[in-house]
């Protein structure tokens, strides 16, 4: 009996007695896991808020330094504010905030309610207030304002700086409001691609700016809009550092082993049939870093010089051997 008691003490799981007199395993690690998960969520949310704040400040600085002085109304609510400011003299930041209010209400009902509204309201508020503050005090801190007399430089840097700021805001999971809200609602309701919706909304605003400020200014505004989109995408997705390679070969196993040994990357393979010849081949697929492209081509040429190779561009690779899925 004593031996059985000792064995049961070490071999049986710990139990607790429930109200009905039954027993259940004691789950002592659940509170710790839940606490860790809550801590991780809080840390992630704090990082997103920091990204949102920094991105919004950068976007407001680019808008104040380069777009407003030359009336570069490059689409969006910010472009509409520049047009209205030309006729009324009202502060552009205040108008951005006021015009975003009805859009935020629409976004509340169609794009996620409180999570959407909280982040977007914060971004819009920071952008609007800091824009007016920058326009009010930059003249006192800078040796000359605007920074350059060249409108082309202003158009280029307005797009780049504003795009970098917008990309950081997008990475935080938010937007700076404006026509982006309209675009997402229309896409949700109609299925029209966002790029097409932005082309219509921003195009109308730029055309209006051309009629008000002259068509040369409108052309510069289009350049700002275009560069802003490129800079925003680059900031959001990062540089294209990975490549995907597809190889069709008759020496699949040998080539697969050589690529794994030479590149240190996993290889996927399938048996395929060519539609034209009806012959069976092996298709290999792997993801590599950009500097490994020449090594891949060399290995393939050494093993099977008759292989067919295509190499594509990918923005990100997540998982084993690359960036982790969870940060």
In terms of DSSP E residues, the strand content is: 5-15%
Structural class: alpha+beta
Count of β-strands? 6
Strand count, sense and closure of the main sheet?
Answer: 4 strands, antiparallel
The backbone outline, from C-alpha atoms, is elongated
Cα radius of gyration in angstroms: 29 Å
Number of helices: 11
In terms of per-residue confidence, which ranges show pLDDT below 50 for 5 or more consecutive residues?
1-27
Spatial separation of the terminal alpha carbons = 52 Å
Please tell me the total number of domains: 2
Order of helices and strands: HEEHHHHHHHHEHEEHE
Please describe what this structure looks like.
With 327 residues, the protein is α+β, with helices and mostly antiparallel strands. 64% of the residues lie in helices and 11% in strands. It has eleven helices and six strands. The protein has helices at 2-11, 30-67, 76-88, 92-110, 113-141, 151-171, 179-190, 194-213, 215-237, 252-263, 293-303; strands at residues 15-17, 23-25, 242-249, 268-273, 280-289, 308-314. The strands form two sheets. Strands 4-5-3-6 form a four-stranded antiparallel β-sheet, with helices on one face. It is elongated. The two termini are 52 Å apart.
């Amino acid at each position: 009996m004593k031996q059985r008691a000792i064995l049961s003490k070490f071999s049986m799981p710990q139990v607790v007695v429930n109200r009905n007199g039954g027993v259940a395993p004691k789950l002592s690690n659940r509170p710790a896991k839940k606490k860790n998960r809550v801590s991780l969520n809080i840390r992630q949310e704090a990082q997103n808020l920091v990204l949102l704040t920094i991105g919004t400040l950068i976007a407001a600085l680019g808008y104040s330094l380069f777009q407003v002085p030359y009336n570069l109304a490059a689409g969006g609510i910010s472009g509409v504010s520049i047009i209205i400011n030309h006729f009324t003299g009202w502060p552009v930041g205040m108008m951005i905030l006021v015009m975003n209010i009805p859009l935020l209400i629409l976004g509340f009902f169609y794009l996620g309610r409180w999570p959407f509204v909280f982040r977007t309201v914060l971004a819009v508020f920071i952008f609007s207030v800091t824009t007016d503050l920058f326009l009010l005090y930059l003249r006192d801190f800078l040796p000359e304002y605007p920074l350059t007399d060249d409108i082309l430089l202003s158009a280029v840097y307005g797009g780049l700086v504003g795009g970098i700021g917008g990309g950081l805001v997008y990475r935080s999971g938010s937007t700076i409001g404006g026509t982006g809200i309209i675009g997402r609602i229309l896409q949700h309701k109609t299925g029209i691609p966002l790029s097409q919706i932005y082309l219509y909304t921003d195009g109308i605003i730029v055309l209006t700016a051309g009629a008000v400020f002259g068509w040369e200014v409108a052309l510069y505004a289009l350049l700002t809009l275009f560069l802003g989109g490129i800079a925003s995408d680059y900031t959001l997705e990062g540089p294209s550092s990975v490549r995907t390679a597809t190889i069709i070969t008759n020496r699949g196993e040998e080539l697969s082993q050589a690529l794994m040994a030479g590149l240190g990357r996993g290889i996927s393979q399938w048996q395929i049939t060519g539609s034209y010849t009806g012959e069976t081949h092996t298709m290999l697929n792997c993801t590599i870093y950009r500097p490994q492209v020449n090594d891949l081509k060399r290995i393939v040429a050494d093993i099977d010089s008759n292989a067919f190779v295509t190499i594509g561009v990918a923005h990100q690779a997540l998982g084993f051997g690359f960036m982790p899925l969870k940060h």
